[in-house]
Amino acid sequence: MTAVDEHGMAKFFAGFEPPEGIKAELLRGEIVMMAGPDLVHNLIVEDVQDQIPRKRWVRLQTQDVDIVDEASEPVPDLVVLDRQANPGSGRLLPSQLITLVVEVVSKTSVDRDYVTKRSIYAAGRVPAYLIVDPVVGQCVLLTSPVGKGDDADYRSQRLSKFGESVPLELLGIELDTTDFGTFQGVRPHRYP
Asked: pTM, whole model, 2 decimals?
């Protein structure tokens, strides 16, 4: 896809209204639409959000993110930024203001969360990306983004099983995963 095509797609996406109950994201020039999430998914997002101190951190669910130099506007399940970041207003939150993004894997988002978004968030220089995976009962914390575009990735990866705490050092907390639920009857995958 050429830069003109990607720019055109981003412009089109800015005015795009998905059907009610459908979440839409722009990921590297492609519009991806998903049905509403499972209850297990929503309970995990709520649990993670509740553990992040509100007085120090802004915790936003389903906030559109602007990734610099990318034809991408992902909508993470949770975005965390310092209260002093002062994002202003508008539909898009600049990725450089974000401290942590959280994606809870759904039954249909495994590849997007582990591969596509990993590269997109690293390209946007988001310092930490937490993948919470109720398909296989694990959390993957990615830190230290490097590279650009499709080659961007995180240098550090830490895997924790549900029930173990996840050290979110950038936030100064240990995330308790004891109460995270899992999907039943879903075929496991081999990521990370």
From this structure: 0.90
